[in-house]
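Hey, I was hoping to borrow your eyes for a little while. For a while now I've been wondering how a particular protein folds. The fold is given in discrete form, as structure tokens running alongside the sequence. Could you read through the record and tell me how the tokens relate to the sequence? Take your time with it, there's no hurry, and the full record follows here:
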Amino acid sequence: MSEKQADPNTNPSPFKVGATATGSVTAKEGENPQSIRAISNVIITDVVKAIVKESADKEFDNDGERIKYTVTLQNDSSVDLYDVKIISELCSKTTLVKDSIIPIPQLDETLGTGISVTSPNETSVGSVPKGMSAVLQYEVIVNEGETGDIMNESIAEIKFKDQTGSEYTGKTEPSMVVTNIAKADLQITETADKAFVTENNEEIVFELTIKNTGNVTVNDIVVVNPFPDGMNYKPNSTLKNDTKTLSDENPANSINIGNLDPEQIYKIQFSVTVNL
């Protein structure tokens, strides 16, 4: 687990605003004017900018397998943060892996109520000084039989004080990460240009449409279309994926079409003749 160290060149500074007023006065007629200048008090406006970023160790996963989440809070404020907790809302399609939460939760802390996170070298739990970061990690298991997307969302609760010592409590914007439950599926349909034949050696044109209906790439796809007795492949009648070049690939002996990405379609056209 890596955590960002403070960089004084990138730490935001508070905004400081002050005013001046200048003028001139002439004490006696004929004397040179004397300048006068007044300086106001300085108003200090702090910058409070805490950002949560959540990531998962995989984009796709299968049911029964684990996903490791990393949630990072970056303090890009001009003030130190304390009592910092990260709250993660687990997807109902997953189950938390026991004892996988890092850092170890404080008494009665849960992901739902918030886990205290602390920057390295800090002795006070929940302390994240300006320019520093803190990290939460945990693992879940994808429940058996689940499909679709796994959406995990995290936010952070923070506390800080302004220049006068007044305390404030706030929350960051949420961060969400989506993991797809891998689904490998193919669909193949076949059509013919006629429903019946009446003559010997009559030709029938078939078309196969193969589609990847899953959400992961399917590799090394092989298509086989056997023929019944009395039906014979017409040599050099195969068209692959709408190409204009005919080939002699007999689908009864298999045709390798390679890989299909999700929603991608591949078409094969060929002809047969019949013996009546």
Remarks:
- The radius of gyration is 35 Å.
- Confidence is low (pLDDT under 50) at residues 1-9.
- Residues 19 and 40 are 5 Å apart (CA to CA).
- The domain at 45-181 is CATH 2.60.40.10 (Immunoglobulin-like).
